[in-house]
Amino acid sequence: MEANFCMKCGSALAEIVIDDTPRKACAREGCGFIHWGNYSIGVGALVVKEGKVLLVRRAQEPGKGFWTNPGGYIEQLEPIQETIKREVFEETGIVAEATRIVALRDQPRGIHNVYLAFAMEYASGEPKADGVEVDEAGFFSLQEMETMQVAALTRWLVDIALSNNGNGLQADHDPIVPLSGQGLFRI
Predict the structure, then answer these.
(1) For residues 26 and 5, what is the distance between their CA atoms, to the nearest angstrom?
(2) R_g (Cα) of the chain, nearest Å
(3) Half-sphere exposure (CA, 13 Å, Cβ side) for 2?
(4) Are 131 and 59 in contact (CB under 8 A)?
(5) Which residues of the chain have a pLDDT value below 50?
(6) What is the C-alpha separation between 11 and 5, in angstroms, rounded?
(7) How many helices (H) and strands (E) would you count in the chain?
(8) b/e map 43-74, b = 16+ CB within 10 Å
(9) DSSP state, 5?
(10) Can you give the pLDDT at residue 86?
(11) What is the pTM assigned to this prediction?
(12) Which residues form the Nudix hydrolase domain (predicted)?
């Protein structure tokens, strides 16, 4: 979708060049709005319990019928760690806590998508599909996944989840300087 009108004042946008890149900017004098692009941030969960990974079968497009790790998109004012916790619970009924970011996918396209995969510590619950976004949910071993239609990205993420090397970016709950309202992750 192409932006044609200013999100600040509603005036028409005109093309300008900033640092050798064409951008859309408000044509109304004094407004100053610049449309920097369209972006989305997705999150995925890697919940491992007794050597098995939590997967869901997609009931909607994209990917209907494929098995994937639970996940979704962040809400505008929701901290990313709360997003992944909420998505896992909504899709599967499982309570889990995000421990670290273990993978990132960068997908530049019409709407530039960044996807962060979180290792999560299982806390409680039995997998139960929400019946809307997903129609099946469960913990599966690599052997069980061999006969399942597992999405390619999920296969890559399962390998990361089961390598269990402890690496990744961990949440920094006590930074050396006060940075209120920011989600911070570090090695």
Answers:
(1) 8
(2) 20
(3) 7
(4) yes
(5) none
(6) 5
(7) 3, 12
(8) bbbbbbeeebbbbbbbbeeeeeebbbbbbbeb
(9) B
(10) 97
(11) 0.85
(12) 38-163
Residue type at position 149: Q
Residue length of the chain: 187
Q: Where does residue 156 fall: left (phi above 0), alpha (psi -120 to 50 degrees), or beta otherwise?
A: alpha
Q: Are 24 and 34 in contact (CB under 8 A)?
A: yes
| Residue-level pLDDT at 178 | 83
The amino acid sitting at 177 is V
pLDDT at 173: 86
How many Cα atoms within 13 Å fall on the side-chain side of residue 40? 9
Q: Which amino acid is at 156?
A: W
pLDDT of residue 98: 95
